[in-house]
Amino acid sequence: MTARLCRAIALTLGLLLAGPAWAQITVLDQAQDRSGGAAAPAEAEAEAAPPPCGTQPLTIARMGWPSAEILAEIHARLLAREYGCQTRVMPGDLAATASAMGSTGQPAVAPEMWVTRVAEVWNAAIAAQMLRPAANSFAQTELEGWFVPGFLAAAHPELKGVAQLRQVLPTLNGGKPVSFISCPVDWACALINRNLVAALELKGLVEIIEPDNRFAMDRLIAEAVSRKEPFLLYYWQPNAVLAQFDFAALDMGAYDAEAMACLAQQACAEPRPSAFPNETVVVALAEWVFTDLPAIAGYFQRSSLPLAEMNRLLVQLNETGASVEGVAERFVAERQDLWKSWVGNAP
To answer: Are 108 and 89 spatial neighbours (Cβ–Cβ below 8 Å)?
Structure first.
């Protein structure tokens, strides 16, 4: 993993991994039409229809972490190529971008908005009818959980989820505890994982390892994979590590908000199992895009990207000499099978 990528991810881990967020958020029907009024005759609609992209450059927020940077550059290129749009990619971050979209309608697009992290600003902008979600940024919303290496999953097909760990773990590692590579000790997920181990009655079956930092965590994972030893790990997505190595996600069971609230506490008296909460990560559009540029709004409503694909793009970004722009151009050139449905019947 390059130092550039590690620095970029480290800058945002405090935001994205500060523990589960249970703030109430407002998510409107992504397909609703607020244009109102009676439908005009087809001829009048054709005469009044604006250019697909309008007459001004379409502004796209490029957030300061790798997956959001890649999405911004991909969308800028596809809108230019398929719709003839003028686009302008501009730097942004979660709070500032959500606030600006909610007050000025600019930027027009934020391709990776982590809504629960800016719930208050988001809800105010929704209430003011200044922005709304077009689609989930990623096709999956379960972004964190427990994994096992692929070779272990292949050797034990009965190991589908955490419910089978009590039966499988005693057969591994000569009966000794199996390593569980958890989060750095000062991260909220480290505490949740400790309580989950107790809730799943895995004490004595796993040895929890809490590295000092993210870099040590990735090094431990790489070393364990190279030794082909059985181990568990916690990880989150999107992330290059899950594509760089072969891992299988374990079914964490159902999400239980009450149980998770206890798991996140230092003194959880009676820990009970729960999956990690889903994240609301959306393509946010300024409201005027829906009303003034319906073809572009439709593009973004179809633009969810599979998590596994983003993980692969992040691996490409780790390659020597790679750049965000280069990875985006490669995606546009090579993955028409994924993005063709986004553009639909583009003019």
So the answer is: no
User: Which amino acid, residue 115?
Assistant: V
Residue whose tokens read 């934020």: 110
Domain chopping of the chain, boundaries: 3-20+53-139+281-343, 144-263
Host H or E run for residue 113? strand 109-114
Region 19-47 average pLDDT: 45
Q: In sequence order, which residues have a C-beta less than 8 Å from that of residue 114 and are 6 or more positions away? A: 15, 16, 94, 279, 280, 281
**CATH 3.30.70.1270 at 144-263, yes or no:** no
CA distance 257 to 104: 35
pLDDT single digits (tens) 254-298: 999 999 999 999 999 999 999 999 999 999 999 999 999 999 999
DSSP per position, 194-258:
HHHHHHTT-BTTEEEE--SSHHHHHHHHHHHHHTT--EEEEEESS-THHHHTTEEEPB-----HH
Tell which residue, 97, 118, 141, has the closest CA to residue 281. Answer: 141
The percentage of residues in the chain with a pLDDT greater than 70, rounded to a whole number, is 85
| Same fold: 3-20+53-139+281-343 with 144-263 | yes
Q: Tell me if the bond preceding 107 is cis, omega within 30° of 0.
A: yes
> Which CATH class, in words, describes the domain spanning 3-20+53-139+281-343?
alpha beta
* Alpha-carbon distances, residue 269 vs 45, 195, 264 (angstroms): 64, 10, 11
By C-alpha distance, which of 302, 289, 310 is closest to 237? 310
